[in-house]
Amino acid sequence: MKKEKKMLLVINPKSGKGQIKNRLLEILDIFTKAGYEIHIHITQQAMEAKDVVGRWGGDMDLIVCSGGDGTLNETISGMMELEHCPELGYIPAGSTNDFARSLRIPRQMTAAALAATAGEPYAIDIGKFCQERYFIYVAGFGAFTEVSYLTSQDKKNLLGHQAYVLEGVKSLSSIKSYPMKVTGGETVCEGDFIFGMVTNTISVGGFKGLVSQNVSLCDGLFEVLLIETPKTPLELSSIVSSLLLKDDKCELVHKFKADSLMVEAEEPVDWVLDGEFGGSHRQVLLENLCQQVKIRRVLSRALKTGPLQKMT
Questions:
Q1: Residue 186: exposed, middle, or buried by beta-carbon count in 10 A (0-12, 13-18, 19+)?
Q2: Nearest-angstrom CA–CA distance, 270 and 262
Q3: E strand residue ranges, 82-158
């Protein structure tokens, strides 16, 4: 008798208006037909996914998580602590799902479930933050970064991207600048910054190409964006134009790639990791761990012309 494969399925029931409950039986049917013995855990609080994966993930053949970017972060953070790291499937259910967009994982839940069982593994880089935490696609500080973790889950579910815009407008009057030195490889930037973002993604907050048009999720390099404090309305206009037009002409906007980054500030700075609060730090080391986790996605022509394509 053929041995059943083991799957740990971690579900955040609050993500995306809890829509997974309407598809759960279909998803479980897909996993069962693929030959998996399914162990399900429904999270009840923050960081629970990390703990569950750390406790049970090492005995599994596949880990699948359903939720938003925060749930994905917790799941992969738990996987990074395992001696044996299984492959990962992801069923997006959040309000933005930036990383799922970058990976071309289907938005439709049953299609994503099929990709988790029949998709091809794709090794992705993982970011390490201050030698103790991990981030999957973005670590940031400054203007608007606090919006993601100050916006309630209910408001995210109700308004989606509009929630971030609404909260962002509220914070315009309180933008603060941070004197700091940022070192990444041969690049050194010193000055007063209102915003910084270290990414490994094509899409951030639903917007593509903010840092670079040439992004790889598995090259061992971060894309870095730093914005210095504008002193005049004209400088502010230049910054906005630079970001909207995606050019490199503004001297206050710094864009570069690096495999690690050291950020040294004169005072503690609040950081956000994948939309969740990452703590206040004066000194931060960010390291790119190249191709650390294999996540299943739709890649080959065979899959794209099969049942996965029909359900996307």
A1: exposed
A2: 15
A3: 87-92, 120-129, 133-135, 138-142
Q: What is the dihedral of CA 152, 268, 212, 92, to 10 degrees?
A: -30
Tokens of 240: 């906005």
When computed from its CA atoms, the radius of gyration of the chain, rounded to whole angstroms, is 20
Catalytic residues: 276
**Total-model pTM:** 0.83
Digits of tens for pLDDT over the chain (312 positions)?
Answer: 566 899 999 999 988 777 888 999 999 999 999 999 999 999 999 899 999 999 999 999 999 999 988 899 999 999 999 999 999 999 998 766 778 878 889 889 999 999 999 999 999 999 999 999 999 999 999 876 554 444 454 544 444 544 444 444 444 445 789 999 999 989 999 999 999 999 998 877 655 656 666 889 999 999 999 999 988 888 888 887 777 776 677 899 999 999 999 999 999 999 999 888 899 999 999 999 999 999 999 865 444 444 444 433
Counting Cβ atoms within 10 Å, is residue 287 exposed (0-12), middle (13-18) or buried (19+)?
Answer: middle
